[in-house]
Amino acid sequence: MPILGIDNGLDGGLCLLSDIGNLPPIRKAPMPTRKIAGRSKDGVKKEKREVDPMGILEALRWHKGPSDDLLVVIEKPLKGAYNIGINCVISLSISFGIIYGVCVSRGYRVVTVEAKDWQGRMLGKIPKGETKQFALALALKLWRGENWKATTRSTTAHDGVVDACLIAEDARRRRP
Q1: Nearest CA-CA partner of 156 in 11, 1, 4
Q2: Alpha-carbon span 97 to 90, nearest angstrom
Q3: What is the distance between the alpha carbons of residues 36 and 52, in angstroms, rounded to a whole number?
Q4: For the residues 111-123, what does the mean pLDDT come to?
Q5: C-beta of residue 145 within 8 angstroms of C-beta of residue 160
Q6: Global confidence as pTM
Q7: Which CATH number belongs to the domain containing residue 122 in this structure?
Q8: Per residue in 39-80, pLDDT tens?
Q9: Amino acid 43: pLDDT
Q10: Are β-strands 45-51 and 109-113 bridged in parallel, bridged antiparallel, or unpaired?
Q11: Which DSSP helix (H) or strand (E) runs through 173?
């Protein structure tokens, strides 16, 4: 059963992995988003981003088999996060709801995982604040030659895509 790993959030990512180990990702992409109308704190009109439900549906179509033959693993919104603002927590929760709702409504099997859990299993004990560097180093080791940049013009790896692939790999390793 293939696994779609999803790093929740507007700058997250998606990664479809085979359930057979050591194969590179089948497909990966940054989180699809769309612009919506919003307002700033002082009431001024402002464009905001949110997860695009149609983009999530498109990613689910990467898997050509039936919906019950794909496991979707979504990173839960941060719980008790002390180092991010309330608006970030709200945004992550809305993103999670959109992703979860689209997947469940289409009949996919969905499980959730907390960041600290998959990171602990995949990365081990690492210095605080160095998660992204260690995650990229592991992804480069697991899937040699894989390009982790979001676009051809990007100069750095896309953290959300890297995390999505490691979320899927964590789920693949924990499968019975």
Answers
A1: 11
A2: 11
A3: 10
A4: 95
A5: no
A6: 0.91
A7: 3.30.420.10
A8: 777 878 888 899 999 999 999 999 988 888 999 999 998 765
A9: 79
A10: unpaired
A11: helix 159-174
